Amino acid sequence: MANHAGGVGLKIFFLYPATYMVNISEAKVVHSGQTFKGAGLLLVDIQERLAPAIVETPDVVARAGTLIRAARVSGWPILATEQYSRGLGPTLPKLRDLLRPEEVVEKIHFAAAREPAFCSALQAQELTHCFVAGMEAHVCVLQTVLSLLGKGVGVTVIGDAVASRVDINRRLALARMVRAGAVVQSAGAVCAAWAAGSPVR
């Protein structure tokens, strides 16, 4: 991965096999002391029977745990979805233990924003911008991000805290999300921004 920082933005590139590079973000970096009013953390389907099939699961879980703890310290709302938990199991214990029962929302649609219970939770928390992590990047994460954007909710995808069984699917999904209007940032950048009160969107 290579970065190029300009005066008004940050370009993030992912290297494909051979010599192709795809620009997946033109995310503006904000240091104006804005607050995160209306923002919250959303974890998508990091579940017991899905996670073992994904090589990057340990890294995703570690970063998701860091994001949960950082959100708690900063006072940001947290939501976590579970896709058909009867089949895919609950959220992994390492993360479920950090979550409150009311923060976990069951869904059957790939796009969380199609679920009435999720929309109710989103409205109850008055969320207008979601920081998203989870799996799989090209299925439920992608569809959830697109559905949120379609409802006018801003999205920052935590690029190193999403994963797919095949990594090219993750890369293509990130590119698709950026084209739709999402911003991609790293877990470290987001946690640092939350701590400083300077949002990176």
Tags for this model:
disordered N terminus, 9 strands, single chain, 36% helix, six-stranded parallel beta sheet, three-stranded antiparallel beta sheet, globular, alpha/beta, 201 residues, 7 helices
Describe the protein's architecture and organization:
The structure is a single chain. With 201 residues, this protein is an alpha/beta fold. Helix content is 36%, strand content 26%. The protein contains 7 helices and 9 strands; from the N terminus they run ββββαβααβαβαβαβα. The strands form 2 sheets. The protein has a 6-stranded parallel β-sheet with strand order 6-5-4-7-8-9, sandwiched between helices. A 3-stranded antiparallel β-sheet has the order 1-2-3. Helix 1 (57-74) runs parallel beside helix 7 and helix 5 (137-150) packs parallel to helix 6 (167-180). The longest helix has 18 residues, at 57-74. 39% of the residues are buried. Residues 1-34 have low confidence and may be disordered.
Average pLDDT across residues?
85
Strand content: 25-35%
Largest sheet: 6 strands, parallel
Order of helices and strands: EEEEHEHHEHEHEHEH
Roughly what percent helix? 25-40%
- DSSP strand tally: 9
Specify the overall morphology.
Answer: globular
Q: In angstroms, what separates the terminal alpha carbons?
A: 20 Å
Sheet with most strands: strand arrangement: 6-5-4-7-8-9
The radius of gyration is 16 Å
Structural class: alpha/beta
Q: Helical element count?
A: 7
Uncertain ranges: 1-34
